[in-house]
Amino acid sequence: MKYSEISHFSHPQHKLRYEFTEFPFKCDGCKEAGIGSRFRCSTCDFDLHQHCAVPSPYSLHHPFYTKCSFQFFSRPPGDVPRYCNACGRDVAGFLYHCRDCGFDLHPCCAKLPVVIDDGEVKLYLYRKVSSPCHRCGRKGRSWSYRSTCKKYNLHVACVKDMLVENWAGGGGGGSSRRFGTRIPTLKNTVNVQRKSKGKVKKCCEVAGLGVQFIVAAVLGDPTALIAGLVGILISKG
């Protein structure tokens, strides 16, 4: 369901209006980066991911945790530091939490598409993969997107790390709300071995181009429109 304007408990002073932005922002709900669709109060410079502004009204169930029932929370429960089981990053704001199992998911991570498919590139989301990530070289750090040929893997956590690395310090003046406008080029994420031949090499090269869709999904807006926009910005990097 589409909303043009909403009232939200986290910002009772003003209503939030839906808008689409080409520039990255920090969500005041989950405290993670975002781009594309958001709900915003321009008066107060307050932003929410669409997934944070309009969470699932009932229990959320995820195919990776079939026995879990996730509930939306405005803050992490308890006094112990918590982390997202999808990306491994700290949970500092809005989240989905399973009371029985203790698992936590950022709202955008909870809504990551299981398959990213633009008609040519197809990447599948896995909870664990046996092959190392093409960015960090490690296994099992977080959920991963894997190519059809199963030779290209990229951690969701590594995508977030790359975003933070590229946007850190972009605001100036000590503001933690602002990011720079540079989208990571990610050119070095595809480490295709010279020995790779034929279909495997081609598959990895195509999957490398699909990184732009992973970036868009991690930022909370896995639509063709924002993915195309990110692709343009990546090419300019």
Automatic annotation (TrEMBL):
Q: Which UniProt keywords apply?
A: Metal-binding, Repeat, Zinc, Zinc-finger
Q: Which PANTHER family match?
A: CYSTEINE/HISTIDINE-RICH C1 DOMAIN FAMILY PROTEIN (PTHR46477), CYSTEINE_HISTIDINE-RICH C1 DOMAIN FAMILY PROTEIN (PTHR46477:SF3)
SUPFAM superfamilies the UniProt entry points to: Cysteine-rich domain (SSF57889)
Q: Please name the source species.
A: Linum tenue
Tell me which residues make up the Phorbol-ester/DAG-type domain: 13-68
Q: Which PROSITE patterns match?
A: ZF_DAG_PE_2
Which GO terms label this protein's molecular function in UniProt? zinc ion binding
Matching InterPro entries: C1-like_sf (IPR046349), DC1 (IPR004146), PKC_DAG/PE (IPR002219), Znf_ZZ_sf (IPR043145)
Name assigned to this protein: Phorbol-ester/DAG-type domain-containing protein
